[in-house]
Amino acid sequence: MIPGLEMSVWEEFLSPGNLGRALRRVEANRGAPGVDGMTTEQLRPWIREHWAGVREALDAGTYRPLPVRRVVIPKPGGGERALGVPSALDRLIQQAIAQVLTPIFDPHFSGSSFGFRPGKSAHQAVRVARRAIDDGLRWVVDVDLERFFDRVNFDVLMARVARKVTDRKVLKLIRTYLEAGVMIDGIVRATVEGTPQGSPLSPILSNIMLDDLDRELWRRGHRFVRYADDVRVFVRSRRAAQRVLDSITVVVEQRLKLKVNREKSSVRHAREARLLGFGFYFTRSGVKIRVDPQAIKRLKDRIRELTSRRWSVSMFCRIDRLNAFIAGWMAYFHLADLASRLRDLDEWLRRRMRQIRWKEWKGYAARRRNLRKLGIPDANAREWAASSKGYWRIAGSAVLQRALPNAHWDDLGLLGLQNTWRRLRTTA
Questions:
Q1: Per-residue pLDDT averaged across 63-86, rounded?
Q2: What is the C-alpha separation between 405 and 388, in angstroms, rounded?
Q3: Cα–Cα distance between 200 and 196 in angstroms, integer?
Q4: For residue 328, with 0-12 CB atoms within 10 Å meaning exposed, 13-18 middle and 19 or more buried, which class applies?
Q5: What is the C-alpha separation between 6 and 10, in angstroms, rounded?
Q6: In the structure, what pLDDT confidence band is assigned to residue 4 with cuts at 50, 70 and 90?
Q7: What is the pLDDT of residues 232-275, one digit of tens each?
Q8: pLDDT bucket at 190, cuts 50 / 70 / 90
């Protein structure tokens, strides 16, 4: 250990440059206020007035974080996930700590760890998984860590942090955050284990905690990927996969004091495996990446919400909301081979948009008039304006497809799923 290194970690944590970067990051991330109600917009002026007292308490070791506000959100696949929302000030301090811990720990993490690391991404993890499957490792071990963020043992975690950080003030402050407690329904409850999801410290601490698992898998020569608590190991046979699952369970439960969910952990063939919303399929040219059917279902569910006829907004507002969702969804899932699937989804989306337009044209006169404006002959316009068929039937008719063709929606600025996918694939 280089003399003075311990103090340099603390000094770097509290340096103006590090705190400035942390403040900008917290402001950019925004987020809901913590238990004190302070927003990220109010944080900077509050700091100008009160930082001297906060700094004094930090240096003296008397600073006490506020408990995190517990928020429960639904999981995409069902169930609920508990998030912890720290106060804006505590987010700033935690972010500043994370920024000094990252260069100490991250260079030594496994190359197979992809979650919450600079220069790493979910797409990289999926590509590495695809390559392993393409190399013949077609049995996938899915290790589900039961409520990982809620079960992390403080002593085990702090022992791993202390391997590289010996500054007692830094260690004490991290432990103080782990033990800050949570506020549920206005009542503060102590925490004796876990790192709250939603805090800036949680990602780096989770990677520190699971680095031992990465090293053990690497020592045994396994091909694997890990993204936070999502772990996949790739082997050549079902029997080998089952042995790996059993041995990993021992490491996780005995060495890390965590718990493997045996009901959700599984051994699957690669064609049935899922990773971060993606799956895999086999072609003559090799293994390809697809979107998990559950992710497609969630896509369609959200589009149904945004194209509901009961949602009374202007068409321009609706298209803006749709475009924002489509752009975000496709930015993540463009990695998959989706060309034929997106063509069908585009047709379905435009049909839903046509039925919205048909509802907007209330009554016989308005429908006949608008159909005539859009080039439909008067006889056809009269016939369809008087039709008693339902919205979905009308939206799929040749007449309304002619009146409201693809070009109509392009002119209104609606992003097509397939065109967005192609553009992103070209620029990726």
A1: 76
A2: 22
A3: 9
A4: exposed
A5: 7
A6: very low
A7: 999 999 999 999 999 999 999 998 888 898 888 999 999 999 99
A8: low
Query: For residue 165, what are the CA distances in angstroms to 81, 168, 169, 173, 340?
Result: 31, 8, 10, 12, 52
Name the strands in the sheet holding 139-144, side by side, starting at the edge strand that comes first in the sequence. 223-227, 230-235, 139-144, 266-269
Both structure tokens of 65: 């974080």
The three state secondary structure string of the chain is CCCCHHHHHHHHHCCHHHHHHHHHHHHHHCCCCCCCCCCHHHHHHHHHHHHHHHHHHHHHCCCCCCCEEEEEEECCCCCEEEEEECCHHHHHHHHHHHHHHHHHHHHHCCCCECCCCCCCCHHHHHHHHHHHHHCCCCEEEEEEECCHHHHCEHHHHHHHHCCCCCCHHHHHHHHHHHCCCEEECCEEECCCECCCCCCCCHHHHHHHHHHHHHHHHHHCCCEEEEECCEEEEEECCHHHHHHHHHHHHHHHHHHCCCCECCCCCEEEEHHHCCECCEEEEEECCEEEEEECHHHHHHHHHHHHHHCCCCCCCCHHHHHHHHHHHHHHHHHHHCCCCCHHHHHHHHHHHHHHHHHHHHHHCCHHHHHHHHHHHCCCCHHHHHHHHCCCCCHHHHHCCHHHHHHCCHHHHHHCCCCCHHHHHHHHHHHC
Does position 63 have pLDDT exceeding 60, yes or no? yes
Cβ–Cβ < 8 Å for 336, 292: no
Cα separation, 404 vs 401, whole angstroms: 5
- Of the two residues 158 and 151, the one the predictor is more confident about is 158
- Smallest Cα–Cα separation from 86: which of 206, 228, 196, 209? 196
Is the confidence at residue 150, as pLDDT, over 80? no
- Residue 69 has a pLDDT of 86
Closest CA to 257 of 157, 162, 113: 157
Distance of CA 11 to the CA centre of its chain: 33
Q: How far apart are CA 161 and CA 96, in angstroms?
A: 16
Q: Are 91 and 47 in contact (CB under 8 A)?
A: no
Q: Are strands 278-283 and 187-189 parallel, antiparallel or unpaired?
A: unpaired
Give the C-alpha separation, 206 to 148, whole Å: 9
What's the mean pLDDT in 70-76?
70
Residue 58: predicted pLDDT: 96
How many residues are recorded in the chain?
428
